[in-house]
Design a protein that fits this description.
The chain is an alpha+beta fold. The protein is built from twelve helices and 13 strands. The protein has helices at about 5-15, 20-55, 105-110, 170-180, 185, 225-235, 260-275, 280-325, 325-335, 340-375, 395-420, 425-430, and strands at about 60-65, 100, 115-120, 130, 135-140, 145, 155, 165-170, 190-195, 200-215, 225, 250-255, 275-280. Strands 4, 5, 6, 7, 8, 9, 10 and 11 form an eight-stranded mixed β-sheet that branches. A hairpin with a 5-residue loop joins strand 9 and strand 10. Helix 2 crosses helix 10. The longest helix is centred in the last third of the chain and has 44 residues, at about 280-325. It is elongated, with a radius of gyration of 33 Å.
Amino acid sequence: MRYIDILATAIGNSFRSRLRTTLTVIAIFIGAFTLTITNGLGAGINDYIDNQVASIGAPDVMNVTKPVEATDDTDGPKPYEPAGPSEVSSGTGRPGATVLALTDDDLDAIRAIDGISAAEPLVAVAPDYVEYGDDGKFQLAVSPLSAGVRIDLAAGSDFTEGTSDNQIILPTTYIETLGFESNADAVGKPVTIGITNALGEQTTVEATVVGVQNPTLFGASPTLNQALTSALYDAQNVGIPADSTNQYGSATAHFDPESTDAQIAAIKKELVDAGYSGTTVADQIGTFQSVIDGIILVLNAFAVIALLAAGFGIINTLLMSVQERTREIGLMKAMGMSGGRIFALFSTEAVFIGFLGSAIGAGVAMLVGGVISRVLANGLLKDLAGLQILTFTPAAIGTVLLLVMGIAFVAAVLPASRAARQSPIDSLRYE
């Protein structure tokens, strides 16, 4: 018997006892449906988290600061000492902590650390307002463009790399307020940004809107390109002594994106030894993502348990089938069919039942998941732009199908082996 004949015969035998096969398929369907839904949930949430993480920094970027060292002999505050020119507090850091300002010398020291390819200061600007046309002035709180940030755009494009033009990307929440007709209408339009310098004088800087971004979990602030940030920073620092303008709250350090965890840890250690502190995006968000992965893993475990229960159903179905078809097995052996092909016949029957149940389960899960995603996106989760709560990929669906078919094959080993070992004479005498 050829393998194609074995497959056709196995499919036909699967429907000899329709009720028994249907019940087994339903059990497999439940497990495959649950596993597909939980995988889709994990993929959807992780994709959204990845997009949110990309909006605050790249995986190959480290935020470097210069924290004040604590005293070794007391838990209280350190004695006051007048700060030197390179030890001015930046006023940033976690509550209760002080972070010293970085200088150009500090940036050179950071660049010299093994594993760091580049480092640039992260400057802060505080504009007063943004204005478009005659619709009035509105308060503006901005985010400077951090290296490697990926912006989730609703319209327009990302910043032009290397340009000296002042460019800004506005969040969708600013569009109607500023007087634009739509997200697309804002692209290419000029806006005026007002900022006050150290002398109390207010000046303006012109910028072009190149894109409109969806809000993120971390806020809905406009994003500036490097040229606009520098222009606002220079305007803001008018009146500040020259020796104070090259002090920064933190720096952005780049390292090889292919760096291993051990190499990143080594870079952090060298930074600490040099008197600095480095934090990656993974340090800030990684734990949260690990919790999500853990929850999805537990849900997947329940789905696998359901599939294992379905595996026992397959064993029961095939054992009964072997018993009912004992004389038929004896006849096949008497006609020269080998034990290996009889094993292949019954195991193929089990794999087909597994494929049938998993294919139906995965297909229904995708349909139900699509409906749930659309309902939630337009209702409960409408404020989380870009969140697709259930995301199904061909690789994930293929993995579910192969897993279920693998469980079905393992479940078929016992009954298929029993059928393959039967004596043709004893089988033909079986009543």
